[in-house]
């Protein structure tokens, strides 16, 4: 009897252990699922900036599917990544524009600092189609060292039933850097 109970308990324990191991805690969310904003806000940019740049990142809040009348809604993530091991970067503005080139919204109230190897994301939720198929972000950033080269990219993703779509875009300098 003991062996039978033990034999039944072992598989149940393994299943429960595996189920618990599959759930990961996100470092970007509180236990309630709220975003954690980890970048440091500053009142003004330092005077010692050696580099200033403006970067354009294409974002698609929806794309055409089969016909011009049929659209596929996407969740879009703008990822800002400081690739430097030595120097912070300063982001003074993250602005979102729609397909017509009209300003839609600011994502920063104050400039922020991204320390060495730090990153931050901004999300356009799937139901927000205000940007349209030609939406974009414009990021104004600066650094105290000329050799800093951050990565700014867009990641779009969506799933419907068993079909999924995902792709990414890269930011490009539009300030002549």
Whole-number count of domains: 1
Secondary-structure-derived class: mainly beta
N-to-C CA distance: 77 Å
List the total number of helices.
1
Strand share of the residues? 35-45%
What is the 3D shape? globular
Helix and strand succession? Answer: HEEEEEEEEEEEEE
Largest sheet: 7 strands, antiparallel
Low-confidence stretches: 21-26
Helix content: 10-25%
Radius of gyration: 22 Å
Quantity of strands, as a count: 13
Structure description:
The termini are far apart. The chain has 177 residues and is mainly beta. The protein is 12% helix and 44% strand. It has one helix and 13 strands. The chain has one domain (39-173). The protein has one helix spanning 2-22; strands spanning 40-41, 51-58, 62-65, 67-73, 75-81, 89-97, 103-106, 112-114, 119-124, 136-143, 151-160, 163-170, 172-173.
């Amino acid at each position: 009897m003991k062996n039978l109970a033990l034999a039944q308990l072992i598989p149940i324990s393994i299943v429960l252990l595996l189920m618990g191991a599959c759930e990961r805690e996100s470092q970007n969310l509180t236990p309630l699922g709220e975003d954690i904003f980890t970048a440091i806000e500053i009142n003004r940019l330092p005077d010692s900036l050696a580099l200033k740049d403006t970067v354009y990142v294409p974002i698609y809040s929806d794309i055409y599917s089969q016909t011009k009348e049929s659209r596929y809604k996407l969740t879009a993530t703008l990822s800002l990544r400081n690739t430097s091991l030595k120097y912070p970067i300063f982001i003074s503005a993250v602005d979102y524009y729609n397909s017509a080139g009209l300003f839609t919204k600011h994502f920063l109230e104050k400039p922020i600092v991204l320390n060495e190897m730090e990153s931050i994301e901004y999300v356009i939720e799937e139901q927000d189609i205000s940007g349209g198929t030609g939406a974009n972000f414009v990021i104004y950033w600066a650094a105290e060292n000329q050799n800093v080269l951050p990565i700014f990219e867009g990641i779009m993703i969506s799933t419907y039933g068993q079909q999924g779509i995902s792709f990414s875009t890269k930011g490009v300098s539009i300030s002549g850097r």
